[in-house]
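User: I would dearly like some help making sense of a protein record. I have put the entry right below:
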Amino acid sequence: MFCNSLLNQQSMGLGGGFFMTVYIREEQKAYTVNAREMAPAAATRDMFHGNHAKSFKGPLSVGVPGELRGMWAAHKRWGKLPWDSLVAPTLQLCKDGYQMSKAMHDNVEMVPYIKTDINLAKMYYNSAKGRFHRAGTVIKPTEALCSTFQKIAEKGGDELYNGTLAEMFIEDLSRVGSIITADDLKNYKAKIVTPIAVPLRNGDTLYTPPPPSSGVILVNILNILSGYNFNASSINSTEDMILTYHRILEAFKYAFGTRTKLGDIDYLDLKEMISNVTSPEYGTETRLKINDTMTSNSTKTYGAMEYNPPDAGTAHISIMADNGDAVSVTSSINYYYGAGFSTLNTGIVMNNVMDDFSSPGLKNAFGLEPSPANMIEPGKRPLSSMCPSIIVDKNGDVKMVIGASGGTKITTATALAVIRKLWFDQTIKEAVDEARIHHQIFPMEVQYEFGIIQDVVDGLRAKGHGMVRYRGRGSVVCALYRNSTAIYANADFRKGGDVAGLD
């Protein structure tokens, strides 16, 4: 994760936060580390009323980061290697530099304003040529950021929260107008909690984080679809595929209707809702509402009376260990390069997670009011689409480790990969790489990738779905699958990740 915070600095890093699902084989028990950013103590419900742009970019858009304290908590609980050895490869990257990836280049082009940031301009901008560096250029992190990593290696993960580094960090944030205080940093806690555990078919169990992650949305989708008993023949013919995709899309829509009621579980009583959407009875009840011949274009049909804003960004890592343990972790600073600036003397790219909260008075394009469940409160953590998950078989052995990046498309892409692998019996490469469909209610249209055959597009359109092909990257899935013979891995081609095995 330290290395990834450099190689994918546009998406994650010390200025952000994460959700992590951990499975310990010896205990046959799973855990969630909630290191999601939180609203500062000085934050108020209406702080962006009338000026929503400030929630997206600049110092007020920054939430209290949880990344490092989350990694520190995980290391103290389960770590085996010395802490400084975990940071050492990142310090080597600081020394040697690394090649700018195409994904990183594409992203800097989308946020040209970062060239006004001293640290980011040094890394990414060629002032002599008046443009950002090209993909393949060897770039080096700034001295400020490398010095921060060195201090973290020497003094531990609390250094950014209550050490001398914290003092520098707060000075940097105060200088630009952030409302984050030293007390906000000291009081931040990464929480190790019990994940949602849901039985799937054949004795499998899915573990995924509770809200404010979107693990409950992933569970909701799979629960609704489970009763259809999908198998390889469900996508045999064009007609089969049209019906199957229609049912999947309807499940997406009902699940995203549920999403409008979610928020930080520490601020809301969501026990009944989680119990409902994870129960077989709810799955059956919702399935009976799905009309195989047509869809509805009313958000109310799917239970969406308010809306939550979409999120973006993120990076994901999936790991299986030789002792049977597993980790699935998704990290984010929200939008590309977060709040659009780095801290001057500590070099940290800051999140813009405050934009993930709902704000009063800001209706969406469909005239719906923002969800009260996700309004800003001091110390609250905003709703996220992240859902790093682990699937375990009836013997307690890890079968699948999966997660994704890509904002609101995370949950649907993860669900599709699980469905294709476990139910359609595709290879892990097919399950991850195959063209995807997506629906999130807002907007009321199906977004589909190149590769969905035209007859299927036409068939879905005939059932009333608005069909729009998206040309962007979409979600990027990282998945591992284990059976009795081997471990199979696939890093999504959509972003250029990689897989690796260690003896």
